[in-house]
């Protein structure tokens, strides 16, 4: 048996088949015998269910990792995971190189920066609309520069990568983030630079936007799938 926790049953328009409980009730959801829960719903969902999922004895894959800009939430899920001896798993999702930066963080890390650039369509309904007119923009324009903690608060729906990178490297208050709206792009692009005792890494990823939600891309679901398959495979690669 598997289960999907939704906010409104009326919003479920797909037939998920036998063996899948679709529910809006957390207790019923947690009553289903699974070992792993995937959060792919937003900061509010991590806030509402993260601790309970871990306390109930499941590992938790968190995609909306920017939720951890709330330090008290981060500490609460960490404590719940430790007590239940379960894990909070942050997949690479929309970026690459978290494995390498986390390895580099075993020694001295001097700086980690992220520049996120996305096409205009990705920024509709976000804070970017308060900074620029998306309808008349003709060239790449910076709409935010600051720490990953501020970036995660400012763009809860589209710069979660900054928080994932922070957890891998120098933390939410030391990771520097720039956010650009770029009318010339057709892919969601993240440029990562990290420097430290290990050397230097410079990574650019270009994600094909999802048709349903251009803020994000197909690679995110693929990354979660890779983690789930890795959990049941004799070979674990790219950690
Ligand atoms: N770590 C990373 O690299 C990335 C993280 N994300 C984050 O992952 C999350 C999901 O992304 P998308 O699928 O693109 O977003 P989406 O907005 O297309 O879909 C989210 C779905 O979750 C539902 N939802 C919201 N709150 C819920 C709750 N409390 N309980 C149950 N369902 C709830 C919504 O109704 C919606 O159907 C977002 O927070 C997004 O910002 C997305 C891309 C990359
Ligand atoms: O998919 C992406 O490009 C990144 C994203 O939305 C996020 O980090 O929240």
Automatic annotation (TrEMBL):
This is L-aspartate dehydrogenase. It catalyses: L-aspartate + NAD(+) + H2O = oxaloacetate + NH4(+) + NADH + H(+); L-aspartate + NADP(+) + H2O = oxaloacetate + NH4(+) + NADPH + H(+). The active site is at 190. Pathway: Cofactor biosynthesis; NAD(+) biosynthesis; iminoaspartate from L-aspartate (dehydrogenase route): step 1/1. Pfam families: Asp_DH_C (PF01958), NAD_binding_3 (PF03447). HAMAP family: NadX (MF_01265). It comes from Natronocella acetinitrilica. The iminoaspartate product is unstable in aqueous solution and can decompose to oxaloacetate and ammonia. NAD(+) binds at residues 94, 160. Specifically catalyzes the NAD or NADP-dependent dehydrogenation of L-aspartate to iminoaspartate. It is an enzyme of class 1 (oxidoreductase). Keywords: NAD, NADP, Oxidoreductase, Pyridine nucleotide biosynthesis. GO terms for molecular function: aspartate dehydrogenase [NAD(P)+] activity; NAD binding; NADP binding; oxidoreductase activity, acting on the CH-NH2 group of donors, NAD or NADP as acceptor. InterPro entries: Asp/hSer_DH_NAD-bd, Asp_DH, Asp_DH_prok, L-Asp_DH, NAD(P)-bd_dom_sf. Residues 2-91 form the Aspartate/homoserine dehydrogenase NAD-binding domain. One of its GO terms (biological process) is NAD+ biosynthetic process. It comes from the Bacteria. Residues 138-225 form the Aspartate dehydrogenase domain.
